[in-house]
């Protein structure tokens, strides 16, 4: 055996003695998973809560849907058979206001991306992540009380939640730049990253039940539980994690030596200067930024609009809504885990280079998701279970991004991963601000196959353009309810005559 082979054999034996699943880097992945879980729970809980906290039939919504009665008859609304659904509704917010509320989170989220990455690279991601989540949890606990005071307070609290959680992913990327050995990056980052779909799964699956049976009129319990559990998680985060292997009090010497020897730079040193010009002129940064924007347009559209799509287009009732909305994200979590392990397998066996592996995963994710979403859009609501199947496949393909552009930030610049991820995620947040508003503008009458205002008959247009402000000022709640019931009766009687 040559000296070089002896050294290589010694290194392999050393790596074999390093703990894996119970190691500190994997404990960081487990804790990070739950952290990302709560980031997304706090982000999407209002999407589900709004289904049951806002009145189903406001005057404007009832009038503007008269042109779509044949669509409703083909796809009976399960919510019509639920006598308890409207008992929990306290607010009469129109669709543009609801869409703006969903988008308000991102007004704050976009601001703190780059500052969050810089703070994490400079002072450590542990404190940045932990403090941000504490602020977010408290904001959610306060939301039910504030919502009953003014809808403006909902905007303020959602912006605060966005500002706080805006630093979380750059901070986590900064931590992985110091903790993830190159050939384990896909697995570690993908595992912590599947907190995204599991956060959606947990929120969607439980929110429908909480809406129906929870305390504080049902919908309030969604915010109390998600915010309160987040605050408990913050305590465990500060106890279990550390900014780098060198500062961890419980890490074994073998694991510390293994990680430090594999990371491409000295993890104990902090970045005092950032090469901004080189970052902004780097083609790989722009490639990641483009992929980030494209991926997030799909994800944010589904995150904010999926519960409403399940209810208003596919006609699932509130309890089914949560379950069916969760299924696509179960598929996404599964594909993300598979993609992470498969990517590291290809790289470890030298079957593909890191660059080719990232390209393969990202290309698979984009082409598969795009094709399935197109098919979903052409699936009629009478085949709603088929629509859910294609929608689930589309979201499943987006899970391949966990082994694509998301890992790429740590691949080519681990020392500045926080700042670079903050930069690309800032651009990727724009779809979160725009997509809910675009979806609301394209579907003003909450149905598939929208009949546009300019295409209506004159009589339909007259009936469909009622000024909410006039009725709000002159008609009390009892008369509004009576008028609503009359319109609904007229709607179904007219269909029976046909």
Automatic annotation (TrEMBL):
The protein's superkingdom reads Eukaryota
Matches recorded under CDD domains: MFS_SLC17
Task: Provide this UniProt record's keywords sorted from A to Z.
Answer: Membrane, Transmembrane, Transmembrane helix
Kindly give the Pfam families that the UniProt entry links to this protein: MFS_1 (PF07690)
Q: Which residues are listed as membrane-spanning?
A: 27-46, 101-120, 126-143, 155-176, 188-210, 222-240, 326-348, 360-379, 385-407, 419-442
Chief location bin: membrane
**Compartments (UniProt record):** Membrane
Domain called Major facilitator superfamily (MFS) profile: residue spans? 27-498
Q: How does it sit in the membrane?
A: Multi-pass membrane protein
Q: Output this protein's name.
A: Major facilitator superfamily (MFS) profile domain-containing protein
Q: Native species of this protein?
A: Tegillarca granosa (Malaysian cockle)
């Amino acid at each position: 055996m040559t000296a070089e082979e002896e050294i290589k054999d010694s290194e392999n034996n050393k790596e074999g003695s390093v703990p894996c699943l119970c190691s500190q880097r994997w404990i960081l992945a487990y804790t990070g998973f739950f952290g990302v879980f709560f980031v997304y729970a706090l982000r999407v809980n209002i999407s589900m809560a709004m289904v049951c906290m806002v009145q189903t039939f406001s005057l404007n919504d009832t009038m503007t849907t008269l042109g779509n009665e044949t669509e409703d008859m083909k796809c009976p609304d399960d919510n019509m058979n639920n006598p308890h659904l409207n008992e929990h509704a306290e607010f009469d917010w129109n669709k543009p206001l609801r869409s703006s509320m969903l988008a308000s989170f991102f007004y704050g989220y976009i601001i703190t991306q780059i500052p969050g990455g810089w703070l994490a690279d400079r002072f450590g991601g542990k404190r940045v992540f932990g403090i941000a989540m504490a602020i977010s949890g408290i904001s959610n606990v306060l939301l039910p009380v504030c919502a009953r005071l003014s809808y403006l307070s909902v905007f303020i609290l959602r912006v605060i939640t966005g500002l706080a959680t805006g630093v979380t992913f750059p901070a986590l990327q900064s931590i992985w730049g110091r903790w993830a050995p190159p050939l384990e990056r896909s697995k570690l980052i993908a595992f912590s990253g599947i907190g995204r779909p599991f956060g959606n799964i947990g929120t969607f699956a439980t929110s429908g039940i909480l809406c129906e049976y929870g305390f504080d009129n049902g919908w309030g319990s969604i915010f109390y539980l998600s915010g309160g559990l987040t605050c408990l998680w913050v305590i465990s985060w500060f106890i279990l994690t550390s900014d780098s292997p060198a500062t961890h009090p419980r890490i074994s010497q073998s694991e510390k030596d293994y990680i430090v020897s594999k990371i491409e730079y000295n993890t104990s040193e902090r970045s005092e200067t950032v090469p901004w010009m080189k970052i902004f002129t780097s083609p790989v940064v722009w490639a990641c930024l483009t992929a980030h924007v494209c991926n997030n347009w799909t994800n944010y559209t589904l995150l904010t609009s999926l519960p409403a799509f399940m209810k208003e287009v596919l006609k699932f009732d509130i309890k089914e809504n949560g379950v069916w909305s969760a299924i696509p994200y179960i598929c996404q979590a599964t594909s993300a885990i598979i993609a992470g392990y498969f990517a590291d397998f290809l790289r470890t066996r030298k079957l593909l280079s890191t660059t080719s592996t990232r390209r393969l995963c990202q290309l698979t994710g984009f082409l598969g998701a795009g094709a399935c979403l197109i098919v979903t859009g052409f699936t009629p609501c009478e085949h709603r279970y088929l629509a859910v199947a294609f929608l689930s496949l589309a979201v499943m393909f987006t899970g391949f991004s966990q082994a694509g552009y998301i890992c790429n930030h740590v691949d080519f610049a681990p020392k500045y991963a926080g700042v670079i991820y903050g930069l690309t995620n800032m651009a990727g947040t724009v779809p979160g601000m725009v997509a809910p508003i675009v979806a609301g503008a394209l579907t003003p009458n909450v149905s598939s196959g929208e009949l546009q205002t300019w295409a209506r008959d004159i009589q339909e247009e007259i009936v469909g353009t009622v000024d909410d402000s006039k009725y709000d000022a002159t008609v009390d709640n009892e008369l509004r309810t009576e008028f609503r019931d009359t319109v609904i009766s007229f709607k179904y009687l007219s269909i029976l005559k046909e």
